[in-house]
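Hi all, posting the design record for the shared folder.

TITLE: backbone redesign
STEP: 1 of 1
STRUCTURE INPUT:
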């Protein structure tokens, strides 16, 4: 598939722009960029475009950005192969994800290195338009707390090691963009200070940190929380913990897995009331079993059983999710009563701002990348455009491979 010179015109739909919603609008795309946005009554030069006319009730919203995803459709970042990443970038547009951070898991050092080298090479030279874009890497572990390991293989957990991190970042050609770590462990604050200096997101996660230790991490430069509520010191009336700090400190933006399994719907509502749309990022934390049948799968060398929408280790510990980001958006609307604009903030705007790429992604704005999702009357993904090319269209047998 080659990039077309002729502009694409999405016509007659509700368009959710950076600041408002155009009831009956259009979006003109040329090359990889959004060229023009407006109301249908302002439209000119329609004959010069490939026109895609859609029902007036359908909505054009910015492509979703998943900053925490391990795998999908049988593939995982830790497979350390081009084929695995090819599978991920093809599969994710079906759920509305147009860009993401390929996420690792705690594992033996050489296995992590292979995954980092593979992803760094892919990011630098093997990406193409019309597929989801890998924006960088999320290093989840091994610098976490064994007390809050969750599905992170405990035997490979180590304390934050700045020298080792620098080696790994070099292997990725500078593409690690987010690091989950336990700030209370030896070397934690030192690593956070370094990450801050380098413009890398320092995220508090898989941690037993106290409220005071989280405050120290914030002062050192941490500004992100990995999957709020899960594998962290919870809220207590005599020790606010990580959850209390996430609620009280505006410096922290918190990821949340809205699948109805990892976090109870009422707790999602509580988090939304506390943090509002500006303080949360919707993620999937999904594993390779997403889009596949119930059965046995692998995550970080551990056997995971997937059944009835839940992925668990042998001891019953939750092991990532099989959540699609489009469904996370739909669930959030249901659980919290938020507006679609607020859901867009959590699924597209906030991750783009956190990654410092809001100048090119995260909203439907002239000059930005043409990463656009069309959702239908049931709030399901109907069509996804990745940097100007159609990556998915429901019932289209010729969808981009």
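Okay, here is what came back for every position:
SEQUENCE:
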């Amino acid at each position: 598939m080659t990039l077309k010179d002729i502009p694409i015109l999405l016509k007659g739909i509700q368009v959710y722009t950076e600041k408002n919603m155009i009831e009956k609008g259009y979006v003109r795309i040329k090359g990889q960029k959004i060229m023009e946005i407006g109301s249908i009554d302002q439209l000119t030069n329609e004959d010069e475009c490939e026109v895609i006319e859609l029902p007036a009730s359908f909505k054009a919203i910015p492509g979703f950005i998943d900053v925490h995803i391990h795998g999908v459709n049988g593939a995982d970042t830790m497979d350390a192969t081009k084929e695995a990443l090819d599978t991920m970038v093809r599969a994710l547009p079906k759920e509305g994800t147009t860009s993401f951070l390929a996420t690792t898991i705690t594992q033996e050092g050489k296995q992590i290195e292979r995954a980092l080298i593979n992803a760094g090479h892919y990011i630098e030279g093997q990406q193409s338009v019309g597929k989801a874009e890998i924006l960088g890497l999320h290093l989840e572990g091994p610098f976490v707390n064994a007390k809050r390991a969750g599905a992170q293989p405990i035997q490979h957990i180590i304390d934050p090691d700045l020298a080792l991190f620098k080696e790994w970042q070099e292997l990725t050609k500078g593409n690690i963009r987010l690091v989950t770590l336990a700030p209370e462990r030896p070397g934690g604050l030192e690593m956070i200070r370094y990450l801050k200096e380098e413009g890398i997101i320092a995220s508090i996660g898989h941690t037993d940190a106290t409220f005071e230790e989280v405050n120290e991490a914030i002062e050192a430069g941490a500004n992100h929380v990995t999957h709020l509520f899960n594998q962290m010191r919870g809220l207590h009336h005599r020790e606010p913990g990580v959850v209390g700090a996430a609620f009280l400190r505006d410096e922290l933006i918190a990821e949340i897995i809205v699948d109805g399994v990892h976090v109870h719907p009422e707790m999602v509502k509580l988090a939304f009331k506390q943090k509002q749309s500006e303080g949360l990022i919707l993620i999937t934390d999904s594993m390779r079993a997403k889009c596949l049948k119930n059965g046995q799968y692998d995550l970080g060398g551990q056997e995971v059983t997937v059944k009835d929408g839940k992925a668990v280790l042998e001891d019953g510990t939750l092991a990532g999710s099989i959540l699609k980001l489009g469904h996370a958006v739909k669930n959030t609307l249901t659980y919290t009563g938020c507006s679609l604009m607020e859901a867009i903030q959590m699924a597209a705007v906030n991750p783009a701002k956190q990654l410092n790429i809001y100048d090119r992604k995260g909203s439907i704005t002239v000059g930005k990348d043409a990463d656009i999702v069309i959702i239908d009357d049931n709030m399901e993904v109907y069509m996804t455009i990745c940097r100007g090319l159609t990556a998915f269209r429901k019932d289209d047998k010729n969808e981009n491979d």
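COMMENT: The two ends are 9 Å apart (CA to CA).
Let me know if anyone wants the other runs.
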